[in-house]
Amino acid sequence: xxxxxxxxxxxxxxxxxxxxxxxxxxxxxxxxxxxxxxxxxxxxxxxxxxxxxxxxxxxxxxxxxxxxxxxxxxxxxxxxxxxxxxxxxxxxxxxxxxxxxxxxxxxxxxxxxxxxxxxxxxxxxxxxxxxxxxxxxxxxxxxxxxxxxx
Length: 150
Known about the structure:
Shape: rod-shaped
Number of domains: 2
Order of helices and strands: EEEEHHHH
């Protein structure tokens, strides 16, 4: 039980309400076409700025993926730089050549091009996840009624 996360408390932006919101409600707005939904204060039902509510740990997975992809990409860049400056290899030989028997072996027949492609997956997925969530947050902020914007 001591492992439970502490609930994030926000204050309702409505000047008449100003109550603490531990968990907002998800309100279905059937008066618009198409019907939409948004987070609302459980006391006065005013639309909440999604950015304020989701700001906490929403970007943690995308940050982790981007950092992982960047780390692998930096390592590949260092390996290419090392081989070109120390051994005078050309880029094609570095990316597509075998490294078996060299001081920096990549294991199981892997080539530098494989690590480069592997690094693109978490890097691009992390960036796209971040941008997609950011777009949704900005969109929900612009769609908020004028009185609820911060």
